[in-house]
Amino acid sequence: MGIIDTLSTELADRTAQAASFTVGIHSGQRPRSGILWRPDVVVASEQVLAEDATELSVIRGGTRIAATLAGRDPGTNVAVLKLETPLDGALPHPETEPPRAGSLALLIGADASGGATARLAMVHEVGAAWHSMAGGRIDSFIRLDARLAADEGGPVISLAGGLIGMSTSGPRRRTIVIPVATLERVVDPLLADGRIARGWLGIGLQPVMIPDSFRQSTGRDSGLMVVSLADGAPASNAGILPGDIVLDIDGAALSRPRALTASLGPDRIGQAVALRLLRAGAVQTIAVTVAARPAA
Predict the structure, then answer these.
(1) β-strand partners of 106
(2) Which of 193, 226, 256 is the last residue of a domain?
(3) What is the tally of structural domains in the chain?
(4) What is the pTM of this model?
């Protein structure tokens, strides 16, 4: 048997093994895929589920089971479904070796009857932890060279069979992987509370350049101007005013609203942060106590 035949057999075997923890998800929209995380818990891509999705069903190998949406987190793009009846079979085990650019991976999905589908992808790029536009922390950046369809939300496995993470479509439809470490971190809170609480100041910001005459005193070329304040929010209660230019938080420079969102993780709720800002030509620092972002 040649190398190609051996590889082909290996890929088919890995796909067959992954079929036990791959399900199709039906919610009245186009079918998508999910990962059987526990016998009665499925992990899926949050962005493909309708905002009012509550009653769903999953299908594996022709067996359909009712499911309920237990929790969703746009920040990490993870949704968790609770199954009415547990499914048996092998569950995924995490891949022990981190993926490298150029390594191969299998994108596993489910067809209309819940049978496994597969496509071979190459790891295009890997990087450090990052924050999504919605404020969620993703433990590592993994981008693949394939495009997704009904297999979005399914498992991405290594050629050794270990789970690398969940597939999802990122900006410009690029395929990225939500890594196992992120899934492990958010599944239980989503099951318990239905959402991931994140820090919130209740402030709308717009990037601006600092006027030349104030750059020396502020030590910054740019900042974030306050353009809106939520009533009763932490920023408003602390005395932040429209027109203030926020320079940094706890000494870390701010040039984009996303940088502020990234600094307000769940661990910051209830803590005070120091916002250094420019107001009417004077630099001052205001302490603001972080609150939990209100539920949508």
Answers:
(1) 120, 157
(2) 193
(3) 2
(4) 0.85
